[in-house]
Structure formats: structure tokens, C-alpha cells
Amino acid sequence: MEVINAIGRRKAAVARVYLSEGTGKIVINKRELANYFPSTILQYVVNQPLNKLGVAEKYDIKINLNGGGYKGQAEAARLGIARALVKINADDKPALRAEGFMTRDPRVVERKKPGQPKARKKFQFSKR
Known about the structure:
Layout: E1 4-10, E2 13-21, E3 26-28, E4 31-32, H1 33-36, H2 40-53, E5 59-66, H3 70-88, H4 93-99
């Protein structure tokens, strides 16, 4: 099996995922998963598509992550892994879609407008 690649995005985070046959090792930016994401919750988020299909020990995954915060990066990696798994076996798509792993979350930070301190907040109104 050749290397399958896919991309996942969330907020400002971009994950480039390279999936190949192996023993279930996940490397993010040349660091182990447990090293890169010390939080067990974020490790769980990254592993969700693999655990759903029961293929956690079947593939080696190399991920290049940049941009965003740790939560956005974990969810970007999850989307990238799900897309790569669907490239390998298209029959898995309905199961992953039912869990919401195939949907790109479109929510991003709203831009700051001129004449306002933040995106929606206005300066305090003074009558006199």
C-alpha cells in the first residue's frame, strides 16, 4: 500500500495527514502523539475515527500540523485522518459521517471592525 495523504482544517489550524500501513504509531511534527498532546482528551479526539472503525493498530500516521491552538489542531487532525481512511475504503464514509468526523467545522473568528474595540462590541455611548 502506498502512502495516502489528506488535509484537515479547523479554525486557523491545518493538518496534513500521511497514512500508511504499519503498527498504529502516530507522529505529529516529529513528536509522538502523547508528547505533542499531553491531554488525554485531545489524544482521544485524534484517535476517534480510528477507534470508530477499529483500525487503530493497522496504520502508521504522520501529521504535519501548523496554525491555531491545540483544540483546533486536534480537530483538524481528526478530519484529516477521517478523510484519509475514506480514501482507503469508501464504504467507511457513512459510519464516519454519522459521528460527524467528515464535516469541516466552518466556524472561524469574526474579524474586528474599524471604530469598534472588538468584532461585535461597541465603544461605550456617552450622551454628554
